User: Fold this.
Amino acid sequence: MVLRHTEPAGRRPLRYLLLAAGLLLALALPWLIYPPVAMDIASWALFAAALDLLLGYTGLLSFGHAAFWGSSAYAAGLIAIHSGLPFPVAVLGGAALAAALAVPIGYLCVRNSGIYFAMVTLAFAQMIYFAANQWRSVTGGENGLQGIPRELFGLDLSDPFVFYYAGLPIVLLGLWGLWRIVHSPFGHVLVAIRDNPARARAIGYPVERYKLLAFVLSAALTGLAGGLFAISHGFASLQEVNWTTSGKAVMMVVLGGIGSLWGSVLGAALVVQLEDYLSTSGFDGIGIVTGTVFVLVVLLFRQGLWGAARQLRPATRRRQKEPAPVEPVRTPSSTTAR
Assistant:
């Protein structure tokens, strides 16, 4: 007899309802906010979700994912400038470079854990930053890589509104791929490794190999987002490979909720929209405000915004199911005779 996991009644319709609402919001986003900001939210959402595959589902904190985001941005820009190929091909080329770069880096990093893993990834990211800064003939150095075209079989994508709908399918495919990964047997093994790597190794799973594969997949999807971000802006700079970019992505994951793809999307939307609002209002201390929000969320919502919302729903359901207290019925025998 094969045992199958069955979802509680009502959970699957709610999941479909949330998915439909998310798709409708993604389609309506450039009508609600400035279209370039909408594209930034989509790109950073994919970046944060890809990082959450490593942090939330594998238990590995990386401060070096800016290396894959930035290297893909440069690669996609160079492909678009020198080959004239459609921008999706350039974005896929950048993602392929990020995945290839992640193989040796991940091979050396996954042998560590905890803070040691984070520091090693940061060291490799700084090496990529130094290489991008010194290789001025290719990357442009401090001036960056400018004039990246947006071409798609002769269609004019210079309008940010039009480009959003051309790039959105790439983001949605990336998020769908992440959802398939975390809900597959491979994703369940990653969670087991995160919770108890010694027991997973004792069962017979090659823990380092699984960690390496998760690292490469996370880097490839991060590269997909980085290439799309560079094509959207028509520019790639040293900021894309700076360690602060990795820290920003980690902040998005923690704000939304570690181990939740929906939470990563929510955290990315919150941070990007907040930064855009503060910058357009002329406020200079953007880091102070975003840092304060981050500290408040960590202190008040230990599982992030999405995790807090998920905790409220079962609590509300329990209150609705609990019967109302019944007052004891007094009988003549229970009263004191006078």
Notes: The beta strands are 145-146, 151-152, 155-156, 235-236. The longest strand covers residues 145-146. Residues 64 and 210 are 19 Å apart (CA to CA). Residues 1-9, 320-338 have pLDDT under 50 and may be disordered.
